[in-house]
């Protein structure tokens, strides 16, 4: 009988070492290596029982898309790719307090209202706490079956009897505990073993499993990355605690697109869907101030208009500050260099602050033109024209490059009452004609110097 030994496991990447180290050699993270006990494997080594063998099938066969259970919350269903897929596992990650439990209780209630069986297992809150929340959300009358539990062996015993359930929510995976594993809840070993067991039950049964996972300060899912590989879809619920907007983003989805977002607003009665995010993101925009430009962006299949704000402050001597919220700081440095070198805008003694209003994070290169416009507008203290949207990628030689889905962007701008758009020049080989919505004026911009000329004093034309 081997005596129990321990090993050291990195809580960030799951790497295993025989010795403790302050820094994980595999992923380079500090203070993530913890000791875990090894549980003895059943059966003496070398005498493992022979397996039964697996059944192989051909590729052709019934491949109808799995029937999905729509939750009825459209913003959620779209991110899921049309609803919950039976026998699948979804991980919903996010900062503590961002609204994961609220979202899932609302989704569970909505499914229960449509006559499906829903189990909600909370390892964090007592049944009384969940009931209170349900009352606040106005869903206390739904037939959700609620349990406060964390012992996965006991949960598994119930789930094996619950084959008619459509949805099982586990809130959260970090509080789950399996007695076969000799470490605390929330450690790699526990999270991995508990998820494995729960996912196995979901695959064997017919229900969709939703695991809630907390995210650490630096944005990674607490516990191992391995969890992301085990589930079929990973959704992140994000947003700024200071803002009421919440964005649900798919980062992995075996049954749908990964670039979709769902937009919600946290109200005092739970999460409200935001079917038209552009209107919300632009709601507080004030016209006629310099340093602001509206970007016609795209999130997944959805056009979203957001305001980009730039503030410049003189900083003679010393190294100038560049501070960015909601955009990539490396990309900003590149744009500032292009503005300086290709269009002669002097910014080397200026602090630059850039903000995407409303708490949205923009990742598209198409935002370059709007960012450049907001900076040029701030630099020459001349507002952009209030009815104009901007989109286009900027290359290193200052050229404005084409971006995808121009028509969808223009349509959204027209829908929200904008009257003009600054966009890349149509290329000679682009043989498809761009159809602009009626009443929207297109202003093609070929080079960043042309953009800057709209703001520089010697130019008469408006931005
Ligand atoms: P919660 O769903 O508990 O977050 P998580 O499960 O991600 O930790 O949400 C908690 C926050 O949401 C809390 O700060 C209060 C706020 N909230 C509302 O503003 N309105 C509501 O109706 C509810 C239920 C919560
Ligand atoms: Mg919670």
The amount of beta strand, in percent, is 25-35%
Distance between the termini: 80 Å
Give the ligands present: thymidine-5'-diphosphate, magnesium ion
CATH level-4 homologous superfamily of the largest domain: P-loop containing nucleotide triphosphate hydrolases
CATH-defined fold name of the largest domain: Rossmann fold
Q: What's the shape?
A: globular
Q: Would you identify the regions where 5 or more consecutive residues have pLDDT less than 50? A: 459-463
CATH class of the largest domain: Alpha Beta
Helix-and-strand structural type: alpha/beta
Strand order of the largest sheet: 6-5-7-8-4-9-10-11-12
Q: How many strands appear in the DSSP assignment?
A: 21
Question: What's the number of domains?
Answer: 3
Mean pLDDT: 88
Descriptive key words:
463 residues; alpha/beta; Rossmann fold; Ribosomal Protein S5, domain 2; 9-stranded mixed sheet; 7-stranded mixed sheet; 21 strands; globular; disordered C terminus; binds thymidine-5'-diphosphate; binds magnesium ion
Structure overview:
The chain has 463 residues and is an alpha/beta fold. The chain folds into 3 domains: 6-38; 74-275, Rossmann fold (3-Layer(aba) Sandwich), CATH 3.40.50.300; 280-453, Ribosomal Protein S5, domain 2 (2-Layer Sandwich). It contains 11 helices and 21 strands. The strands form 4 sheets. A 9-stranded mixed β-sheet has the order 6-5-7-8-4-9-10-11-12. A 7-stranded mixed β-sheet has the order 15-16-14-13-17-20-21. Strand 10 and strand 11 form a beta hairpin. It is globular and about 85 Å long. The termini are far apart. Magnesium ion binds next to helix 2.
């Amino acid at each position: 009988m081997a005596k129990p030994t321990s090993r050291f496991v990195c809580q960030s990447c799951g790497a295993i070492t025989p010795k403790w180290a302050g820094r994980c050699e595999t992923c380079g993270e500090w203070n993530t290596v913890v000791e875990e006990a090894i549980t003895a494997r059943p059966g003496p080594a070398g005498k493992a029982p022979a397996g039964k063998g697996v059944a192989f099938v051909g590729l052709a066969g019934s491949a109808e898309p799995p029937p999905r259970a729509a939750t009825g919350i459209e913003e959620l269903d779209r991110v899921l790719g049309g609803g919950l897929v039976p026998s699948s596992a979804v991980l919903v990650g996010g900062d503590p307090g961002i609204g994961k439990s609220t979202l899932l209780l609302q989704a569970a209630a909505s499914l229960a209202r449509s006559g499906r069986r829903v189990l909600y297992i909370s390892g964090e809150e007592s049944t009384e706490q969940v009931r209170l929340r349900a009352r606040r959300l106005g869903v206390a009358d739904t037939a959700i079956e609620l349990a406060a539990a964390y012992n996965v062996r006991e949960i598994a015993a119930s789930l094996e009897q619950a084959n008619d359930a459509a949805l099982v929510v586990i809130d959260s995976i970090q509080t789950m505990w399996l007695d076969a594993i000799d470490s605390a809840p929330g450690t790699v070993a526990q999270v991995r073993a508990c998820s494995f067991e729960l996912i196995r039950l979901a695959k064997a049964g017919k229900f969709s499993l939703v695991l809630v996972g907390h995210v650490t300060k630096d944005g990674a899912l607490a516990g191992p990355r391995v969890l992301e590989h085990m589930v079929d879809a990973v959704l992140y619920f994000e947003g700024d605690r200071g803002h009421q907007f919440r964005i649900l983003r798919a980062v992995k989805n075996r049954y749908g697109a990964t670039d979709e977002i769902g937009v919600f607003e946290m109200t005092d009665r739970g999460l409200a869907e935001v079917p038209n995010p552009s209107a919300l993101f632009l709601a507080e925009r004030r016209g006629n101030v310099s340093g602001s430009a509206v970007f016609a962006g795209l999130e997944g299949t959805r056009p979203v208009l957001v305001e980009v704000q730039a503030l410049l402050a003189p900083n003679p001597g010393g190294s100038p500050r560049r501070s960015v919220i909601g955009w990539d700081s490396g990309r900003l440095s590149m744009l500032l260099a292009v503005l300086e070198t290709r269009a002669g805008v002097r910014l080397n003694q200026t602090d630059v602050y850039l903000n995407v209003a409303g708490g949205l994070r923009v990742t598209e290169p198409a935002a370059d033109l709007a960012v450049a416009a907001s900076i040029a507008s701030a630099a020459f203290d001349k507002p952009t024209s209030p009815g104009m949207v901007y989109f286009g990628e900027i290359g290193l030689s200052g050229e404005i490059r084409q971006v995808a889905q121009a028509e969808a962007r223009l349509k959204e701008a027209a829908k929200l009452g904008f009257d003009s758009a600054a966009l890349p020049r149509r290329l000679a080989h682009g043989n498809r004609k761009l159809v602009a919505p009626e009443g929207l004026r297109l202003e093609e911009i070929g080079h960043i110097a042309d953009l800057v000329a709209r703001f520089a004093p010697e130019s008469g034309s408006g931005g």
